[in-house]
Amino acid sequence: MSSSFPPSLYEIVTPRLVIRNAIPSDAKTLARILSSPENMPYQRGHGSISIDGMLRRIANWNKMASDGSNAFLAIVLRETGEPIGTGGFNCFELHPGGADTPAPEPSVDPQSSAASGGSPYLTDIGVMLDHPLWRRGYATEALCASIDFAFTELKCQLIRLETDIENEPWRALMRSLGLGDLEESGVASYDGTTGWLYKIDVETWETTKTNMKASGKWPL
């Protein structure tokens, strides 16, 4: 894939998953996943989403991705194409200094990286999976692939991860990746409450990858 930003389409392929732009045939399954409170126990859910509502949301996601504002993507099983969650890049910030500013889900921004003709300085990565598929290593696989893609393809310099202050499973995931030492409390960009934040630069990520490979934990 070309490193020009924004990509015309997103497709991140891992041994078991594909992280890609959502398509209309995903709508029924994604509506169910996003409507399930069990899938987001630490955040306010989306409420009940109809298939038509999900189709509108998918169209909006893809427009924002093509504009370079963000990239909300579907996570699907590589073998079957079945959606099992959502992930992607919650924002793109062109310059240092905006990483700690809480903001709602962004709309098209004329100051986005795409409008300014450059690669983003920072992105914020998220992963949400259907709860029956938790504890199978899919979150590790999706997160590692998304971080790698952000650094190698999108040419980001800094990656931010955030979670609710009560989300112990996410904190355990960060420790399992070797990122626990990066944890700090701060204001979460998605709702303005206090949460756990992790900021990863390229050098830290390369060290993390090396350590995961040495310990047999690297999923890609």
UniProtKB/TrEMBL annotation:
> A Gene Ontology molecular-function term?
acyltransferase activity, transferring groups other than amino-acyl groups
Q: What is the recorded name of this protein?
A: N-acetyltransferase domain-containing protein
Identify the SUPFAM superfamilies for this entry.
Acyl-CoA N-acyltransferases (Nat)
Out of the domains of life, which is the source?
A: Eukaryota
One matching Pfam family is Acetyltransf_3
| InterPro entries named in the record | Acyl_CoA_acyltransferase (IPR016181), GNAT_dom (IPR000182), N-acetyltransferase (IPR051531)
Stretch list, region Disordered: 95-116
Query: N-acetyltransferase domain: which residues?
Result: 17-203
